[in-house]
Amino acid sequence: MDYKTGERLTKYRKKYGYSQEALADKLGVSRQAISKWETGESAPDTDNLIALAKLYNVKIDDLLNVDPEDLNNKDNKDRRDKVIINEDGIHVTSDNAEVKIDKDGIFVDGKKKEFHDHDDDDDDDEYKKANPKLRLVRKIIDGIGFGIALIVYIILGALLPNQMGWAVYWTLFFIPGIIDSIFSAVIHKKVSKFNIIFLVCFAYLFVGMRFGIWHPTWAEFILIPVFYGIAKPIENYYKEKNNDKVIDAEVNE
User: Fold this and answer.
1) pLDDT per residue over 91-125, tens digit each?
2) How far is Cα of residue 64 from the mean position of the Cα atoms in its chain?
3) In order of start, what are the domains of the chain with their CATH numbers?
């Protein structure tokens, strides 16, 4: 296989956002094989040519006989508002951009893009601005909370009669998580950070196993959707209100 054919294979691979490793995985060959095809040291066999043509939505002749310059011109003509959806993912091309979405990620003009949740950024900012002593206390609780719960559990298990301690007080392991979520809610200034699920489960299991009261305490699980149903809208309201203040301040400046 000549160099120009290898160059065409390279152009098609990059056009569709594949690395040599990703393309090798698709075809079931080694990365070294892809590299040799693209440098002209060897040529793909018929099965691999068919697989490549199908992957790139072209004819085999386009892979073997089209000049690289013609390929560029052909790409420019085909880029007008074209959407391809198949088992490999979604491929969108237009006059100005090319986007491919597959199991390997999101590629814009052949470059992989990373995205993250802006709410996480807000949380990080709040955490950095939080009182250092408050953060230190949280770290200490994270470090020793479960250790303390384990010690108390062993002591109660050994001292209480009729296996009561072993059977009931394992629920103490919920408490470090509950306490940590309180600090998280305060530090991030978000009520929804409080782990209401742990609290409800702890209360239900402890009361049920310690006192045998399982009904109607099950009704406390209703608190979970109620809690989040109230906390989230309140947080969104204050977030929008703070954003409006920031915008007003910038306008006034």
Assistant:
1) 777 656 677 777 677 777 666 665 544 444 445 55
2) 40
3) 3-113 (1.10.260.40), 119-252 (no CATH)
